[in-house]
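Work package 3, deliverable 3.1, input record:
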Amino acid sequence: MFPRSRFAAGASPLFTKRLGAGAIGGLAVLTSLGLAACGSSGGSSASSSSSSSSNPLSSGAAKGTVVVGSANFPENELLAEIYVLALQGKGVKVTPKFNIGAREVYYPQIQKGTISIIPEYNGALLTTSVDTSSTAATTADVDAALKSKLPSSLEILNPSSAQDKDSVTVTQATAKKDHLTSIADLKPYAKDMVFGGPPEFKTREDGLVGLKKNYGLTFKGFDPLDESGPLTLAALQDGKVQAADVFTTTPQIITDHLVALADPKFNFAAQNVVPLVYKKALTPTITSTLNDVSARLTTAGLLAMDKAIILDHANYSTVATGWLKAVGIKS
Amino acid sequence: MSFFSYAWSWLKQPQQWHGPEGIPVRILEQLGYSALALLVAALIAIPLGILIGHTGRGAVAVVNVANAWRAIPTLGLLVLLTLWLGFSVLAWLVPLVVLAIPAILVNVYEGVAGVDPELRDAARGMGMTPWQQIRKVEVPVAMPLIVLGLRTGAIFVVATATIAAYIGLGGLGRYIIDGLAENNYGEVAGGALFVVLLALAVQALFVGVRRVAVPKGLRLQGRSS
């Protein structure tokens, strides 16, 4: 049998002889330069918003315009779209920069002023980026902590009553059977219920630990699933878990007829939608417009819009325009 | 901190070794998921591989489809099946079986199809029925490759059974997923370390299987060529 070919490494000797090692080296360098160029200029993801998205990493906006950014998830992009349309309705020049990334990516940008406005959630902003040791839970406490500890270049405007926060959620059938409206009502039933949530919920301060401390709940078991995602929702539907951690603006709350129980003791810290702004970009028009938007935004309204964009795949700016019209803000 | 110092900081805690969530239990769960998946995959792939190796029919189609299967993302299939079928055994078993089948099937087919035509001819000449040819000649001669196929499939499955944790089950994946979620990198590193050790142990196990299953003559022949 023929021995393993000495050409087995891949390059045919003819090819090598013709082009020579130097030419191959040159080709390799050119290819890698080309790939590096493609890699670094990438980043503009497909945005379903009608506004154009430019490279989020390029430096700030043209003079006189305000840059509205968003994180890389649908609800945040929708909120940013609402801000953009409301501001444009008041004649403010706006440059949208949507789908920037997670907070680790966009927070340094707004601190520097590369973006001017971004929709935020007061509780998460506080504990992730401003004061990780804060235990503030109510809207008032969280806002006060933010106002005193935000870096001097930043400011929050008025919070809205709309919140996208964790909750203890049950099916409608369970709520009816055990007459549940608040987490406190679970006390006699928790020992027969399995709780579903993201793996870290087991040890998180506001997770099982907090539910026990604040409401005296001890569940029969814990199923580590995903963070208010398809697995958790499926587990609730199938009855694999009887209560789960579901975000309060998850569209399936409507379509699966779920009930997010009230949290009177603020086990889960407030997560009110609030505009985070770069102070130097603020004008009185911007402040009053965004405060107006926040005043009219409710959890139910946000939930309905999330259903439209996530489950019904509606166009973001159509939904945003529709809402602004319904609440009487010019866009 | 290095990977190993992270892993050590976690696994040196005595409480990690006790209880229903301790390391021994998780290892057993991982082996349990893997063993079942490998068994089902072998029950499908070995007979099929022997059949197409013996008859030579359908080989191109079957082997190409099996190889294309390797592209199926196991985690994606897991989530999809969980949403379709609910949290059942099939939801995690099917993706692992799908992962193992190509490795076993291709090796069994190559082994059986690669049996020296003279040997087959001699067997036929001796009056053996096809079933006897398979049982007495083809399979024993193909044994080295059959065992290799099972070994490859076993290692794939033992390493990938970590995904069962994604739908709330146990196994060593529990440490990786929970550790990531809780930012406990010692747990992640420890879980990953044990997956690697387990895969190496499976590798060693199959060296032993080879010793038992492959006829001595073939083993010696393999060594000298």
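Chain B has a mean pLDDT of 91.
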